[in-house]
Design brief:
alpha+beta, eleven-stranded mixed β-sheet, 20 helices, globular
Length: 977
């Protein structure tokens, strides 16, 4: 059985002070150094060494004698010496070549230490001050953080669990036991001997780890589970002590006496906090949901919305806190299979119903229990039988082998064995077999297990709108719901389990003071073409484009329309005689000179069914257009999966910018829609829609600055082979800092570390240098998609190699590295109406950098957008490295102002634009991959396609970077907007 849970096998770096001797930064091995890290005197060995300026940082180095981690720096103890990185690292790949990486080697190297023992191990920097002071107003807020008190003298014992059946499986392979079965086995052992195994004093993660407030016996224990039909299963339950988690270590971290977070302790406490919900609620992924959903949340079609919660422990300035947030999912209801199908599939059960393919699609992979015999076992539906029930028979063997095997009809078998008659004899049976064995059960004896997710993108429109309405709860409703969940007996603090571990929780939300930053003034052009200063609306921070023009509008003289709706019936067919003149006029009013299209090409949606269609169409359009098109406007009558083929062919093979739109929206030709379509096209072609009137804060001097965004898009959870897509974007204009170029690369499956980060950044810097005749002297990097547990990877496996690549090019810009997180549960609620906006949300520009932030590292929450629907989620910014020595005020204002420069809208966005764009590019890389792989599975493209496309489709591989390389005509523009 595989190890699970991730609690063992990881050394807690910084888990103790170096024993004996004195560190170079002052203080002995067990003492606490004082003073805060700043710039320090260093001895360097190479000219122009970017490591010379270490900024405010904390670090550790390995010690050769006893292989312990030595605490050199720390939040209060800066080092005074520095070791130069090893010069033996391999040189970067040539910047002008495109090579396919050897991913087998990369996977090996990922297991190696990121730094040699002589290289500093970087840690996130400490907070430069006590928080910012800038504001136009302050507000009293409540935050869904619930303080947790613990006894630092307490010990939580961590036990490893291994469960195996006494009788091995017939096929000889070790069988993986389900979480529900493992929980039943654990409960049976503890119920049989409560004196030695007190259930209320323990918490189980459902796989390999038990945490206990008291000492438990260790060794092998035999557990017998008796089924309700009399059958008995025996298991060997092995338990052994692996660690004693001393909570005093967590206190040391919270008070700044320990530099590295004790994750093993937090993980153990997290399991304790989840034990009560696990016992009484439905656990789905990271969220918990009630067993019985509300009747008013019925979505129809055998589905229901379920209101649950997610939770997690956080180390904050006020100490340890539990963060709990509202969560809504669509579930299949707990029904008999026949009742579910009657609700879910139209006409099911009627006399002439024969659409068994739709039935199999709806049921395959779902979990069911059976009612014809008494058992708690859960089965997975493998499919339907090809024959109906009355025709089904199977071979039955005599267990004592006294009689030869005989063929038995399933109808007769159920009558003889279970004394029941099958009613629905003209329906197929469900195949509930596993490991190649058949197990046919009539549908009428099967019930769906509760808590099975239904993908929201498959919901019909009415059900989807209802789920969205429930999910987007108003702030006051969300706050009330969270408070009820925290105080519920089924919640994390019910049942007394947390108190048994010495944990006391305040069930009131944390009060904080939020500051609202003032919005910047933006730059547009007036009717006469003169640059105009625009003061944005203070409440929503929005502006409009009525009687205004973009800052720099592109001339569009060579463009074409590819109309996929030409074969559709009105109103889905494009009214080109109405739309095109209105669109041209709106572009001109925005300062974008636009002539008539050089070509209008009718097409049909069927031509998007495979790669061949877009290949032929784009080849034909480019030929008829008699020259390079600036933009190709593609009109569709509905969303279509062929969108990915169109984008992949146009952006990697043909080299033409495409803009897609729906015919229904185009026919309405409403002014806001035409304006949005126009500014997207202007940004794609290199124009500038809006700029800040003043320069970005902090960077008012003459040095060039580049802003970088990086993100990784991972394949779906059920996809076990597809590569992850790494994307890096960067600004190429200064001081406007609103035009970006992008690079996307495939890498190992579900690998969060960007394997080619240094090479991708150098490509972008070379692009910047070609356009500006100078390299940027300052770089600010925003990294998306990483959790706190991956900060070490970002610092030591992405930043360190990037600095090494810069050094080998004799290039030493100053760098700030910031992680932007949206996947967190923290929510801000105004304490009263006067503290919030019209919708009950915090106003744009709200920042919180006290109480709920990290005890000593540099982080803050910023809500930069106007929340019109639901409850606003702030972005959590965490600074990992900072050569620029930003203060809290400077960095918060810089990021907030940047949120006003996003090209696709006329309001500030919720996420700093470099990260927003990197997310768009990473998703575009995912579309490319899907197009490539689906193209390989289709018949070869026709001879009318270009030879380049044909050869690519015939030879492309999943990790071949050439399949994702953007065409040279597009690689330096914002094609991805």
């Amino acid at each position: 059985m595989e190890r699970g849970g991730g609690y063992r096998g990881k050394a807690a770096l910084g888990g103790g002070y170096y024993r004996g001797g004195r560190t170079a930064g002052g203080g002995n091995g067990r003492g606490r150094g004082r003073g805060r890290g700043g710039y320090v005197e260093t001895t360097t060995h190479t000219p122009h060494d970017p490591w010379r300026r270490v900024g405010r940082f904390r670090e550790t180095t390995t010690h050769h004698q006893d292989d312990q981690w030595m605490r050199v720096g720390g939040p209060h103890n800066p080092p005074t010496t520095q070791t130069v990185p090893s010069s033996s690292s391999p040189p970067p790949a040539d910047d002008h070549t495109v090579s396919v990486p050897d991913f087998s080697l990369l996977k090996i190297s990922e297991q190696e230490p990121p730094c040699s023992p002589t290289i500093k191990k970087l840690h996130p920097i400490e907070r430069p001050d006590k928080g910012g002071n800038l504001s136009i107003r302050t507000a009293r807020l409540c935050v869904n953080h619930f303080p947790v008190k613990f006894n630092p003298n307490s010990i939580i014992r961590h036990y490893d669990v291994d469960v195996k059946p006494v009788v091995p499986s017939k096929h000889g392979r070790p069988s993986k036991l389900s979480k529900s079965l493992l929980a039943m086995i654990r409960n049976k052992l503890f119920e049989d001997d409560p004196a030695q195994f007190p259930l209320p004093m323990t918490a189980y993660d459902g796989e390999k780890n038990i945490f206990s407030a008291v000492e438990l016996p260790t060794g092998n224990f035999n557990v017998k589970l008796e089924e309700e039909d009399g059958r008995v299963q025996s298991f060997i339950f092995t338990i052994k002590l692996v660690n004693e988690l001393r909570l005093g270590k967590l206190k040391d971290y919270l008070t700044g006496n320990l530099s590295t977070i004790p994750r093993d302790i937090l993980q153990g406490m997290d399991v304790v906090m989840k034990e009560n919900p696990t016992r009484h609620m439905i656990s789905v992924g990271r969220s918990f949901h009630p067993v019985h959903p509300y009747e008013e949340d019925d979505l129809g079609f055998g589905l229901t919305a379920s209101r649950g919660f997610q939770q997690g422990l956080k180390a904050t300035s006020q100490g340890l806190a539990l963060c709990l947030d509202y969560s809504v999912l669509a579930f299949r209801k707990r029904l008999s299979v026949l009742d579910f199908l009657s609700e879910h599939i139209r006409y099911f059960g009627q006399r002439n119903f024969r659409d068994w393919g739709k039935v199999e699609s709806a049921l395959k992979g779902l979990k069911v229990t059976v009612t014809h015999r008494r058992t708690k076992q859960k089965f997975i539906i493998g499919g339907l039988t090809k024959q109906i029930t009355r025709q089904l028979s199977f071979l039955i063997e005599d267990p004592e082998e006294k009689a030869p095997p005989r063929q038995v009809r399933i109808i007769d078998y159920f009558r003889e064995k279970y004394h029941t008659d099958i009613m629905w004899k003209d329906f197929p049976c469900l195949d509930l077999g596993r490991n190649g064995r058949k197990n046919y059960v009539p549908m009428e004896f099967c019930e769906l297990v509760e808590g099975q997710i239904y993908q929201k993108d498959k919901l019909l429109k009415p059900a989807g709108l209802l789920l969205k309405e429930i999910s987007l709860a108003r702030p006051v409703d969300r706050q009330t719901g969270i408070s009820q969940m925290v105080q519920s007996g089924d919640g994390p603090f019910g049942g007394g389990i947390t108190r048994n571990f010495g944990l006391e929780v305040n069930t009131n939300m944390t009060p904080v003071i939020g500051r609202t930053l003032g919005p910047p003034e933006v730059k547009l052009r007036g009717p006469a073409g003169k640059v105009t200063k625009i003061t944005v609306d203070r409440e929503k921070c929005q502006w409009n484009l009525l009687n205004r023009a973009v800052v720099e509008g592109k001339r569009i003289e060579r463009w074409a329309v590819l109309d996929f709706s030409s074969n559709s019936e009105p109103p889905d067919r494009l009214n080109s005689k109405y739309f095109i003149p209105k669109f041209i006029a709106r572009c001109k009013s925005l300062g974008m000179h636009m002539g008539n299209p050089v070509l209008y090409e009718p097409a049909s949606m069927e031509q998007l069914e495979n790669v061949d269609g877009p290949c032929q169409l784009l080849a034909s359009v480019c030929q008829k257009g008699r020259g390079q098109l600036q933009i190709l406007l593609c009109v569709m009558d509905k969303k279509h999966s062929g969108y990915k083929y169109l984008k992949w062919i146009s952006e990697t093979r043909v080299g033409v910018v495409t803009q897609c739109c729906l015919s229904s929206h185009a026919n309405s030709a409403r002014d806001p829609y035409l304006a949005n379509l126009s500014i997207k096209i202007n940004a794609k072609l290199g124009g500038s829609n809006v700029e800040l009137f003043d320069r970005l804060p902090y960077f008012e001097d003459e040095g060039h600055v580049m802003f970088v965004g990086a993100d990784v898009n991972h394949p779906a959870s059920r996809d076990t082979t597809s590569p992850s897509m790494a994307a890096v974007v960067a600004t190429v204009n200064w001081p406007g800092a609103n035009r970006y170029v992008a690079r996307v690369r495939p890498q190992s499956h579900r690998t969060e570390k960007i394997l080619n980060f240094g090479d991708m950044c150098m490509e972008l810097i070379d692009s910047y240098a070609r356009l500006n005749k100078v390299k940027p002297a300052k770089i600010v990097i925003f990294r998306d998609g990483v959790s706190e547990g991956q900060f070490d990877m970002v610092l030591n496996e992405e930043l360190v190699p990037l600095k090494r690549a810069f050094r080998q090019r004799d290039y030493s810009p100053t760098i700030t590295l910031i992680v932007a997180q949206k996947r967190h549960q923290t929510r801000l609620f105004p304490e009263s109406r006067r503290d919030g906006g019209a919708t009950g949300n915090v106003p744009p520009g709200t920042v919180v950098d006290t109480t709920i932030v990290h005890p000593f590292e540099f982080d803050f929450y910023l809500c930069s957008h106007y929340g019109s629907l639901g409850t606003s989620k702030p972005t959590h910014y965490h600074v990992l490295w900072d050569d620029h020595k930003f203060t809290s005020d400077q960095l918060q204002k810089l990021i907030y102002n940047m949120c006003f420069t996003f090209a696709r809208c006329t309001k500030p966005v919720s996420l700093v634009p470099p990260v927003y764009y990197a997310d768009l590019v990473a998703y575009r890389g995912r579309l490319y991959h899907e197009a490539v792989m689906e193209g390989l599975s289709q018949p070869s493209v026709s001879s009318a396609s270009s030879s380049t496309t044909s050869s690519s489709l015939s030879s492309v591989a999943s990790f071949d970077q050439r399949s994702y390389r953007v065409h040279a005509e597009l690689e330096n523009i914002m094609f991805f907007v």
